[in-house]
Design goal:
The protein is α/β, with parallel strands linked by helices and 251 residues long. The protein folds into two domains: 128 residues; 107 residues, no CATH class. The protein is 39% helix and 24% strand. It has a five-stranded mixed beta sheet, with helices on both faces. Helix 1 links the parallel strand 1 and strand 2. The radius of gyration is 19 Å and the shape is globular. The protein starts with a strand and ends in a 6-residue tail after the last strand.
């Protein structure tokens, strides 16, 4: 098969690793990590990538996202079937199954998860073997933008509200997938835990779901296939996502 993957860059290392081993011909278009923060923009950008895919060139278009705050709900295709993991977000793919995801989140609801992509593509960058935090620089840019749009008082309020996310967590967990420089990722995550006053833990990741995704081993329990003329919808059950006709009629 020939596959085209439209994916969050959180999966950069893992998708490239397994694409290199797959028997299929695979092209990958990585989208900016920051789209997570704006689900509507994530949907718009991903739909544009789907629409730009030439008809007949690929057997399937793989969507390298989960539901992601409903950022993939509504995605549709005119000609090439879509395949997307049944997952709330990328953590499911790093843990290996939606069942393990559910178990972890029930047992440790206050855990913030880190992987190579979450570290390199969102919170920091690797330069000459060292991690460099860029949160403060990004925060200042957002603050200046808010001041310009909403005024000083409103900007301060918005930044304070954004900063409160950390109060919902008490632990930073590094998901070790055995790809990349583990010691760098460990040091970074430990630094985050220390600065936030959180506990630190390491979790053994499971890349089997990612491998099945790229190898084309798609069971209905783990993946949703979206035929042309249908769209992705949230199901509000353990299947997470389903399909309905692009005109709005459920199947």
């Amino acid at each position: 098969m020939r596959l085209n993957i439209i994916s969050c860059e959180a999966f950069c290392r893992e998708f490239r690793y397994f694409a290199a081993q797959s028997e299929h011909l695979i092209d990958i278009d990585f989208q900016p990590f920051g789209l997570h923060d704006t689900p509507d923009r994530l949907k718009i950008n991903t739909q544009m990538q789907i629409d730009a895919t030439p008809e007949g060139r690929y057997d399937y278009i793989l969507i390298g996202y989960g539901l992601c705050s409903r950022g993939t709900a509504g995605l549709t295709t005119d000609h090439t079937p879509l395949v997307i993991p049944r997952a709330h977000d990328c953590i499911t793919l790093f843990l290996g199954s939606k069942e393990r995801y559910t178990k972890r989140f029930k047992e440790s609801p206050g855990t913030y998860y880190y992987s190579s992509g979450w570290i390199e593509r969102k919170d920091g960058s690797t330069e000459q073997g060292n991690m460099r935090m860029i949160n403060e620089e990004a925060k200042k840019k957002r603050f200046d933008s808010y001041v310009e749009k909403y005024g000083l008082d409103n900007a301060q309020y918005l930044i304070e509200m954004e900063s409160q996310w950390a109060t919902n967590y008490n632990s930073a967990a590094l998901i070790d997938l055995g790809i990349g420089k583990k010691e760098i990722y460990r040091n970074f995550t430990q630094q985050v835990a220390k600065s936030c006053g959180w506990d630190y833990e390491e979790i053994k990741g499971d890349t089997s779901l990612i491998q099945r995704f790229l190898d084309g081993n798609w069971t209905d329990q783990e993946f949703l296939i979206v035929p042309p003329g249908f769209q992705i919808v949230q199901t509000y059950n353990d299947q997470i996502i389903g399909i309905e006709s692009a005109g709005g009629s459920p199947t």
